[in-house]
Design goal:
about 180 residues; mainly alpha; 2 domains; 7 helices; Cornichon; membrane; transmembrane; transmembrane helix; Protein cornichon homolog 1
């Protein structure tokens, strides 16, 4: 229990938030450059400051998912990690001040695609954290799970007590456990 919760809450979630925030900041800088609110030197230096930490964070996240056996998350992270490795090996990972306007549209599209991927990874991480929370709360009794399911839909305890819990549709605990082991 402790390792899974520690892995998703203390390691993956902050790395995902940091990757999402840095990419969002880079997109904002590129839009500011396009609108001529910032000069090319400042834009390049601000974006280049976040490139290597982003590559390292993405590589660490991908390696951790591989070594801990979280194959779905690993497969989500592999394409962008390989792309980062290719850019670093070719020495094309930094934005050049003299060419920033020439590659502005391509860089914006690339960073928006990375932002979408990081958002998907964050959503999967939050989903995984929710499943681990339900799984490790000890809700193995179907009535406990029904009660939790109803509480998520903001039903009061009086409304719950007045109904027959066996008649209310809900995802079974076995289904949640199967999803939990899949991710």
């Amino acid at each position: 229990m402790g390792w899974n919760l520690f892995f998703w809450l203390i390691i993956c979630f902050p790395i995902n938030i940091a990757l999402l925030a840095s990419t969002f900041y880079q997109v904002l800088i590129l839009y500011d450059l396009e609108a001529d609110y910032i000069n090319p030197f400042d834009a390049s230096s601000r974006i280049n400051y976040f490139i290597l930490p982003e590559f390292i964070g993405q590589g660490v996240l991908c390696a951790l998912c591989l070594f801990t056996g979280h194959w779905f998350m690993f497969l989500l992270n592999v394409p962008i990690t390989c792309y980062h490795a290719m850019l670093y090996v070719k020495r094309e990972h930094l934005i050049d001040v003299t060419e920033v306007f020439r590659v502005l549209n391509a860089e914006k599209k690339l960073r928006i695609a990375k932002l979408a991927l990081y958002l998907i990874v964050l959503i999967v991480t939050i989903f995984r954290l929710t499943l681990i929370g339900v799984y490790y709360l000890g809700l193995e009794d179907d009535d406990d799970l029904r009660y939790l399911w109803l509480r998520t839909y903001f039903l009061t305890e009086i409304e719950i007590l007045g109904t027959n819990l066996s008649e209310i549709p809900y995802p079974s605990f076995k289904m949640l456990r199967g999803i939990c082991t899949f991710f």
